[in-house]
Target: Quinone oxidoreductase family protein
Amino acid sequence: MNQIIRFHATGGPEVLQLEQSDPGSPGPGEVLLRHSAIGVNFIDTYHRSGLYPLTLPSGLGSEAAGVVEAVGAGVGHLAVGDRVAYAGGAQGAYSQRRVMNAAPLVRLPDDIADDTAACVMLQGMTVEYLIRRTFAVEAGQTVLWHAAAGGVGQIAVQWLKSLGVQVIGTVGSADKAAIAHRLGCKHVINYRTEDVVARVNEITDGKGVPVVYDSVGKDTFDISLDCLAPRGMLVSFGNASGAVPAFAPLLLAQKGSLFFTRPKLGDYVATRAELETSAEALFERIRAGAVKVQPSARYALADAARAHADLEARRTTGSIILLP
Model:
């Protein structure tokens, strides 16, 4: 029987339960997928906690790699035996097998391993749209990236360095500072021991940066605004410390005619062409050696609750995966 992780009430990691479920057969537009590796992302904790509400009971997870075992009617871009990966679509990646819509699935090149794909699709395509389309960075610019040693941050630092962009990264420990430096951060700020705004002003000679990428949320919102140059953009793409508080738009004018955006991946890979272009851009960076990604920790599917606890306690660095 097929094992899956489900939760029947929102709460802490303890609400995640290992259950048995028959995945069924694919209908029109669907495939039956056998997972080989499953990505764990911070957004999964938002769904589990209820910050991003789901209809309960619910499966969890939106990223994985695997092999197509059966194809429903009308699926023309995939065949049985294809190695695929995905980020997005309905929740349910925390499972051995699942029937799912074929639309989010991307065929994996032979030179991209399953465990790499499982921990890079969501985070890597997020980096792609953030730095190429939300705010298109240019060589020679200096940007600020919060949580530079996290899963998204590690990919972003490498990708940005390969483009000739200088990254100021914030981290919460000396160990994470070392990781950020090793991956290519020009400057690393430990927010627990240093004044982030003062250091950014020092690094930029008081000019500020044209863009701040912020997945932390509530705790860094004011800091991020104060690090921006006039007409700079705050790209808020996560809530690791809680949601950004409500604010008056006049605040943006007062701080230098700033821009604020709250993007999400789904709106940037809404068409098949956008999805495949984003994935191929990511695969190209990996293939070129500009972005190197391996899971920093592997957990059994049955240990999903422990993986969430470690993630929320900041005991992990980089990407983590579940093995079904």
Summary: The mean pLDDT is 95. The longest strand covers residues 30-40.
